[in-house]
Every structure is written in C-alpha cells, then in structure tokens.
Amino acid sequence: MKEVYDFLKKSGTYYLATIDGNEPRVRPFGTVDIFENKLYIQTGKVKNVSKQILANPHIELCAMTDNNKWIRIEALAVEDDRPEPRKHMLDEYPSLKARYAVDDGNTQVFYLKDAVATIASFTDEPRVIKF
Question: Which of 1, 72, 75, 99 lies 20 to 30 angstroms, CA to CA, from 59?
C-alpha cells in the first residue's frame, strides 16, 4: 500500500472515476493519505463525486509519472465518518483548511477497500499490489 501511496504522491494529480447512473465520470484529484494503515481520499459531501460514490462505491483511480509508468487502482470506497481521519487528511493538506474543516458537515473521507493496484509501463511487465 505504501508503494501505491508514494506513486500517487509523486504523480501529484490522479484521476478518479465513478459511475453516475450508467455513465462514467472522471475528474482530477490530489488528496491521498495513509491513516490507520488504510489509504484514504478526500472530497466534499456537497460534490457530485460524493453522491456518486455513496450510490455506487466501485471506483477507479489512474495516474502517470514522468518516467512513463502508470497506475490503475480498482477499489471500493468506504466512507469513514469519524473526525480523526478527516483531521489527519486536513493536517496532511493544510491548504484545504481554507475550504474544509474537520466538523464542517462537508469534509468527507473514504478509504479504499479490496483495492487492486496495477503499476505498468510500455517496457516492464505489470505489477499487481493488493491491499
């Protein structure tokens, strides 16, 4: 899992895919955190992405690094409504504190469950990491 976290951090931006009814939706994301040995992402409850994840928790993330490697992560997004993981995320991303607060009723974190990450490139065999 740490290798997946490091890959996403190095990428800076990853793309999160959700399902909206029967249509795919993809948007750029940047938050990723390890808390209590789980990989977390963050959003706001007022956003469509939140509603889509709650309706169908099957998500996929994708990112690429400057060395022509990419990662795809299939997972279930599980909401963790405790204040501790929200605080941890906001402490990792202080710039978010201008728009989010631990107990604002909007800040939302999800951890990835049953995740399968595949790291690939044009030259190497794909590697699979499950967590």
Answer: 99
How many CB atoms sit inside 10 A of residue 88's CB?
18
Hey, CA dihedral for 49, 50, 56, 61, is it positive or negative?
positive
The pTM of this model reads 0.96
Please, how many CA atoms are within 13 Å of residue 15, restricted to the half-sphere of its CB? 12
Residues 117, 114: Cα–Cα separation, whole Å: 10
116: three-class secondary structure by DSSP: strand
CA atoms within 13 A on the CB side of 63: 22
Residues 22-61 have pLDDT tens digits of 999 999 999 999 999 999 999 999 999 999 999 999 999 9
Give CA–CA dist 89/65, Å, rounded. Answer: 23
Q: Which domains does the chain have, with CATH numbers?
A: 2-130 (2.30.110.10)
